[in-house]
Prior knowledge:
disordered C terminus; two-stranded antiparallel ribbon; four-stranded antiparallel beta sheet
Amino acid sequence: MRPSALILLSLLPLAAHAGDDTAPPPAPAAVTRLFNHLPYGEASAADLQPVPGLAGCVMAREAVPDVERLLAAARAEGIALGALSCFRSIAHQRRVFCAGLRDCDGEAALRARFVAPPGYSEHATGYAIDFVQRGANCRAVEQCFALTPGGQWLMRRAPDFGFELSFPAGNKQGVGWEPWHWRWVGTPAARARFAAARTNFPAPAAIPRQQTKTAAGHEVRPPSLETAPGGGDYAVSTSRGEAASLLATSAMRRP
């Protein structure tokens, strides 16, 4: 990884919302995105706390009680939820973003379809979590999570504990569908961290889907998936390779 090049990359404004600064009050301020991702600062270590029910998971202190309540409610209904990732520092995000790439800068645009660039990840706020379904036939951070009992339970119940899905299918922010990635917005301070995303790119409400195509072309009929009005079908993959291909074609379509 070349630090100087990556620093330049993090400063590059690729998708400014022109005209926002001239709109009459109370219009939101201009928002600059990098590969469609919004900038986020890093939470202070003093504001972070381990989540007792999730080994290795650290989150914003104020979010931890709701995470514990969510996990307990899921267990009471026979749902075993885990977490792949919670708080990630900006330095950690750099390693994640460039992992496995021979040319991190040259391949940044493609990688950003699946991983936020350093400084542009919700995980750095301490309010975001990537859930996994323990014991399910679906690997972590795969679209098939939406069809697991845990994924469907979160769609029904996560809002009860202050969580919202950051990147539903067809989201207006233009980030790939991530049914596993949820952000906590249970306090005014948490909502303020995501004000730009929530104001400029509000996530659509959950709309029941009658069918979703799999990578093999067959159809599955989950009770509910997240989509946007007029957003079309979004493929569900069962492997990372298939997810990369499918996200690049279907889940990355703009509404």
